[in-house]
Specification:
This protein has 511 residues and is of the alpha/beta class. Among the domains are: 167 residues, Rossmann fold; 171 residues, no CATH class. The chain is 42% helix and 12% strand. The protein is built from 18 helices and 13 strands. The strands form four sheets. The protein has a seven-stranded parallel β-sheet with strand order 3-2-1-4-5-6-9, sandwiched between helices. Strands 7-8 form a two-stranded parallel ribbon. A two-stranded antiparallel ribbon has the order 10-11. Helix 2 packs parallel to helix 3, helix 6 crosses helix 10 and helix 7 runs antiparallel to helix 8. The longest helix is centred in the N-terminal third of the chain and has 22 residues. The chain is globular.
């Protein structure tokens, strides 16, 4: 391989992918290309190529141009509960068929190495105490996600046998770090709020975790290490931890008292089973350990950061995000003044649209419960632009055919947003802020929660709308919301309002 590799990174906007991108750019030793769905992404540090979702027929030709190493971090990690499709089928479409399609095209493009970020779920859901998984352990995936990852691994290794492609498979344990989501994030949230979690008595289990910093360091090691080709590696930090000690480290990082309650694990398991949450109980009270001797001996790699310091660093970052925002002093007085004035000046339009709306749908106002500041519900008011029987879903999921003739005019002119001035005047919204989402948008809620987006009032317009970022990309939207919140100034406040009034950006776009 050449001295300076040209890399393609998939999943660059995800938790692990964004950390990989940050590390590679900081190193400056590689030419990096990232594949994204929205071409509005811009960066001076990387080449950005637009691709469709990870599918069996996705065209990767442009993205693979002049690439010699692929780092494949993109994956489907869950299937929404409200889908009627078989979960395993849905996981396979992306994690197996999509992955192997990319790998086959990588072979045709002359790519030398394919680094696949798999999952410890390929090995199973848990181990006996002090009997860690090794690379020689028999795979035992038990859920659709783990099965799909294992099938992708097998397909890649088979491809490596018949082509010149070098495959590196990495199975990380639970990954945590800055911007972590899921159960780890929940533990930090409830610990910071002083909730007495009933898991302080889980002291005899051991879990192998891996900080995102250690994981990215290992991935970079695998880019050009000769001994990594066609190998499988289990990766974690170098020290395991019990659930009780995990809570202690989180508390230290947050600077709060650990109020965990010591309830016997057997009682927790019994209660969880009765509630149908035995899987959650297993992750909290069971053991899952891995042996990283192979990575150490074969590649000479050792984790740079201990579990203790990494957990505390993660908790400190979480806390800084919660308290780092200083609101613009004049925002609320300006909201009151402009919303009151707007309602008076626009009253002829409001009355006219209401009257016409009665003839259009018979119900001119659309009132919907949305997530407000501190995740409290409020009733958002808009002019109705869709048929009355349209399902209550996020706008990007709605069918374009649902929009009425009047609705098209209202959306194009953004007059459908005018009634929200009532929400602003009532203190439920601001003129400028994150667009309020529905309570069933779980991915977006999780992403926004970890970014501290719900610490401020939602808004009618803002940076995301003007940047063309909507709710179809939850993580990207949350990051854009966070960027706006952290940089709100009087100048930006007026700029967002003026640009929206001039017709720039979009509201709740329908695909």
């Amino acid at each position: 391989m050449s001295n300076k590799h040209t890399l393609l990174l998939t999943g660059a906007t995800g938790f692990v992918g964004s950390a990989i991108q940050k590390r590679i750019v900081a190193d400056g030793n590689y030419d990096l290309t990232i594949a994204v769905r929205n071409i509005n992404e811009q960066s001076e540090a990387v080449r950005i190529v637009k691709v469709d979702d990870l599918k069996s027929n996705t065209d990767w030709n442009d993205a693979l141009e002049d690439i010699d190493v692929v780092i494949h971090a993109a994956a489907r990690v869950h299937v929404m509960d409200d889908t009627s499709a078989d979960p395993l089928t849905e996981f396979r479409k992306v994690n197996v068929e999509g992955t192997l399609n990319l790998a086959r095209q990588a072979v045709e493009a002359g790519v030398k190495r394919f680094i696949f970020i798999s999952s410890i779920k390929v090995n199973g859901e848990g181990t006996e105490l002090d009997k860690p998984y090794t690379e020689d352990s028999k795979p035992n995936p038990t859920d659709p996600y783990g099965i799909s990852k294992y099938e992708a691994e097998q397909g890649l290794l088979k491809l490596a046998e018949t082509t010149s492609l070098e495959v590196v498979i990495i199975r990380p344990t639970l990954v945590y770090g800055e911007n972590v989501k899921g159960n780890f994030h929940s533990l930090m949230k409830w610990t910071y709020k002083g909730v007495p979690l009933p898991i302080g008595g889980i002291k005899k289990n051991l879990r192998s975790l891996v900080s995102v910093d250690n994981l990215t360091d290992f991935i970079v090691t695998c880019i050009d290490h000769d001994n990594a080709k066609n190998e499988v590696f289990l990766i974690s930090d170098d020290d395991d931890i019990s659930t009780a000690d995990l809570l202690k480290e989180i508390s230290k990082g947050l600077g709060v008292k650990n109020k965990a309650v010591n309830i016997p694990p057997r009682l927790i398991n019994t209660a969880a089973s009765a509630l149908g949450k035995s899987g959650v109980a297993q992750r909290l009270s069971g053991s899952l350990q891995v042996d990283i001797t192979k990575a150490k001996n074969l590649l000479g790699w050792n984790p740079k950061y201990s579990t203790s310091e990494s957990i505390q660093k993660t908790a400190k970052f979480y806390k800084s995000n919660l308290i780092g925002h200083t609101p613009m002093t004049l925002q609320r007085p300006l909201d009151i003044m402009f919303s009151a004035t707007g309602l008076v000046v626009a009253s002829p339009l409001l009355i006219g649209a209401t009257v016409i709306g009665y003839f259009d749908t018979g119900s001119p106002l659309f009132i919907q419960e949305r997530v407000g500041k501190d995740q409290k519900p409020f009733r958002l008011v808009k002019f109705r632009t869709m048929k009355v029987d349209t399902a209550s879903v996020a706008s990007h999921l709605a069918d374009n055919s649902s929009i009425t003739k009047l609705g098209k005019v209202l959306r194009k002119t953004k007059l459908d947003e005018l009634p929200q001035l009532i929400n602003v005047l009532k203190g439920e919204m601001s003129l400028v802020g994150p667009r309020p989402n529905l309570f069933n948008q779980n991915e977006l809620i999780e992403a926004r929660e970890q970014m501290g987006v719900y610490n401020v009032l939602p808004g009618i317009t803002g940076l995301a709308q003007l940047s063309g970022v909507d709710m179809s990309t939850p993580e990207r939207l949350a990051k854009k919301d966070k960027e706006m919140i952290d940089n709100i100034t009087l100048k930006n406040y007026f700029s967002y309002i003026l640009n929206t009034a001039l017709g720039k950006g979009s509201g709740d776009a329908v695909k």
